[in-house]
Write a structure and sequence with these properties.
5 helices, YtzH-like protein, YtzH, about 0% strand, mainly alpha, globular, single chain
Length: about 90
């Protein structure tokens, strides 16, 4: 059963929140972020303001997937992680 867009947003927020709280993550989580963002970007029900945030999250996930220092990458984006979760909450 596919996830609805609200479920996808909730999963996206959970992963981002975990990255912020734990200051670490996995390549598979970054790949999951990438898949979620791709799916949400083609959804017509998503607020345009959220799409801007999704583009930033996509870039973050891409850099994370390709990073040899994933934990450092996550640590360097602590402010953005918090901001993205707040913005998704605001527009979803």
């Amino acid at each position: 059963m596919p996830l609805g867009h609200q479920d996808q947003l909730n999963l996206l927020k959970d992963i981002l929140s975990n990255h912020q709280t734990d200051c670490c993550g996995s390549i598979s989580e970054c790949e999951q972020l990438e898949r979620l963002v791709k799916s949400l970007m083609i959804n017509g029900n998503i607020n345009q303001n959220v799409k801007t945030v999704l583009e930033e999250i996509y870039e973050y996930s891409q850099h994370g997937i390709n990073s040899s220092q994933l934990d450092s990458h996550i640590e360097s984006h602590q402010n953005e992680l918090s901001q993205w979760v707040q913005e998704i909450d605001q527009f979803s």
